Amino acid sequence: MDLTPDAITIAVTVYSRREFVLDAIQSALDQTIPVKVIVVEDCGPDPGMKDFITGRFGDRITYLRNPKNRGLFDNWNVCMEYCRTPWLSILHDDDMLRPGFVETMLALNREAPGRMIYFGCTGSIDEDRRILAAKPVNWGKSWRELDLVEFAEGNAFFFPGQLFRPADARAVGSFCPNSYYTGDWDLWFKLGLRGGVAQAAAEVSLVRSHYGIDRGTTRVLRMGWKWALDNVQRKRNLALLKQERGIDMPFDRTKFLKTSPLPTRYLLRFANGLSPRLLAYNTWLYLHSTPPHKGYWAVQSLVRLTGPKGLRVLSILWNHWQRCGKAGSRAIGSGATAF
Asked: What's the mean per-residue pLDDT of the chain?
């Protein structure tokens, strides 16, 4: 049986980001094929958030507020609890959907029926609403079946622009409420093992690129956890792949560092604030990464000579230089205005 619009709900999660949330909700309402839209506030600190949102959208949305804070991943479970349709898409309050998201998902379901999760390609938008150039997709057709080995080893998509059944998600354990970072990848992979994953070649969503301190990804990056948490999730996925499909793929940390080297800019930005243990771990990853260019090799060689302590000093100097550069730019700008 084909998927129909009345079987779909888009749930926009909300906490405190007034500067982005209206864009997110508007994008859910602006679909070429309308569906039900709910807003789920996770007991945020802004007492005026409900009036702020309902004053803009009125009865076009259903506004729901948790009586207590459930946290990022458990609030996604709340979205499943509030959903009254068979299919659900969850949208962060700082991301957006393209107008053709629902239309694309309906077409994808017709072309690839019976999958447990559908999604499309994702572009980027910055804090100033400038859409960044997306990497072109060239599959030779409008969709692809996601390879489970590929999916076990790397998360194939950003969070926005997915469609799944809450009943299926509950059957495999829902989102882990205590997850720090990879709770979405964990659930999507389990669903893929059970019933397959289809991805549309069309861009259906935009992830917002920003460094707000309330952004989960930013907190994980600042603490130096990202690559450690990714590797733990890879091990879990590969163990499940062997258990349920009999596919034995040994975990190889250095394999991923060949195609996805640890970014130099990331280490320079955050290394000065990492704990000694995580600084040592991320330094090891950096030194075992395959250099994509000569500049990377040069910094890597310096870190190889000086070790984690030297990397911390480099990070302190780099951040100082960045602050001085920004201060100088502001001063020049102010002088130009005065002149």
From this structure: 90
Which pLDDT score is estimated for 268?
Answer: 94
- Looking at 250-293, list the stretches that DSSP marks H as alpha helix, in order from N- to C-terminal side: 253-259, 264-270, 276-287
Place of tokens 């129909």: 4
- How many folded domains does the chain comprise? 2
Expressed in angstroms, the distance from the first to the final Cα of the chain is 69
Task: Report yes or no: 179 and 186 within 8 Å, Cβ to Cβ.
Answer: yes
The domain boundary, picked from 192, 210, 228, lies at: 210
The model carries a pTM of 0.88
What one-character DSSP code corresponds to residue 290? P
Is there a contact between 20 and 93 (Cβ–Cβ < 8 Å)? yes
pLDDT bin (cut points 50, 70, 90) of residue 260 is: confident
Domain identity same for 43 and 131: yes
Question: Of 1, 76, 94, whose CA–CA distance to 40 is shortest?
Answer: 76
